[in-house]
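sry for the spam today, last one i promise. C-alpha cells for design, 230 residues
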C-alpha cells in the first residue's frame, strides 16, 4: 500500500511538472538545452522529440521547422541576457567592477555551451543570427558606451580614449572568443579567453587611479575565489 502511494505521488509530480510548461514552451526549452550541449546543426527534430517523449508530428503541429524553434529559442535567451544586464545596472556597480562581473557572468552562464553553437547559428540560421546581431549592436554596444563614459567621468578610464572605436572592439572581442577557427577548443578554453580579453581591454584604458582600484578589486576577487574553493 505504501509503495502504491509513493507511485501515485511520483505520477502526480511528473504530471504537474509537464503541466507547468505548455507543449510549445517545453519544445523550446528542451530544444535549447540540446542546442546548448551539442550545437544546432547536429540536433534533429527526432532528437528533440525523443528528449521530450513526444512524437515528431506533435512538434510540427506547433512549429513548421527547426529554424522556427531556433529563432524563438534565441529570442528567449536574449531576453534573459537583457534582464541580467539590467540587474547589473540596478546594482550600481562601478564601471570596472561592472565590466569584470559581466565577463564573469558570461564565463559561468556559458561554461557548458558547445562552442560550435555560434558558428551553427551564423552559418545555418540567418534570421536567428540577425536577432543576435541586432541585440549586440543595439543593446550591448549601448551598455559598453555607457560604461566607458561613466568610467571617464569617475576618473577610472583615460579621457582621451575613442569611445566609439573601443566599444566596437570590446563587442567584437566577445564574439571572436567563440570562433573555433581562431581559438580551437582543443587548445583554448572559451571562457578563459573571454576573461583574458576583458582584463587586457581594461588595462589598456585605465588611469593610475583606475589601475589602483582594478588591482585591489582583482586581488579581492582572487581571495574570495580561493576561499570558496577551500
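last one done:
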Amino acid at each position: 500500500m505504501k509503495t502504491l502511494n509513493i507511485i501515485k505521488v511520483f505520477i502526480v509530480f511528473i504530471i504537474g511538472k509537464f503541466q507547468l510548461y505548455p507543449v510549445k514552451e517545453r519544445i523550446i526549452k528542451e530544444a535549447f538545452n540540446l542546442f546548448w550541449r551539442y550545437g544546432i546543426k547536429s540536433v534533429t527534430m527526432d532528437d528533440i522529440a525523443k528528449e521530450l517523449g513526444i512524437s515528431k508530428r506533435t512538434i510540427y503541429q506547433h512549429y513548421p521547422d527547426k529554424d522556427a524553434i531556433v529563432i524563438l529559442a534565441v529570442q528567449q535567451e536574449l531576453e534573459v541576457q537583457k534582464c541580467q544586464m539590467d540587474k547589473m545596472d540596478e546594482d550600481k556597480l562601478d564601471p570596472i567592477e561592472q565590466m569584470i562581473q559581466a565577463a564573469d557572468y558570461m564565463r559561468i552562464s556559458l561554461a557548458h555551451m558547445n562552442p560550435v553553437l555560434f558558428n551553427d547559428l551564423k552559418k545555418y540560421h540567418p534570421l536567428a543570427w540577425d536577432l543576435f546581431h541586432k541585440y549586440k549592436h543595439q543593446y550591448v554596444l549601448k551598455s559598453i558606451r555607457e560604461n566607458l563614459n561613466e568610467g571617464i567621468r569617475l576618473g577610472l578610464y583615460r579621457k582621451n580614449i575613442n569611445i566609439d572605436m573601443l566599444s566596437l572592439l570590446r563587442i567584437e572581442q566577445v564574439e571572436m572568443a567563440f570562433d573555433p577557427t581562431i581559438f580551437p577548443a582543443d587548445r583554448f578554453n572559451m571562457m578563459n579567453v573571454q576573461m583574458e580579453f576583458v582584463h587586457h581591454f581594461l588595462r589598456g584604458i585605465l588611469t593610475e587611479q583606475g589601475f589602483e582600484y582594478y588591482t585591489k578589486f582583482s586581488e579581492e576577487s582572487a581571495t574570495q575565489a580561493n576561499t570558496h574553493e577551500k
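Residues 8-20 have pLDDT under 50 and may be disordered. ok im logging off now
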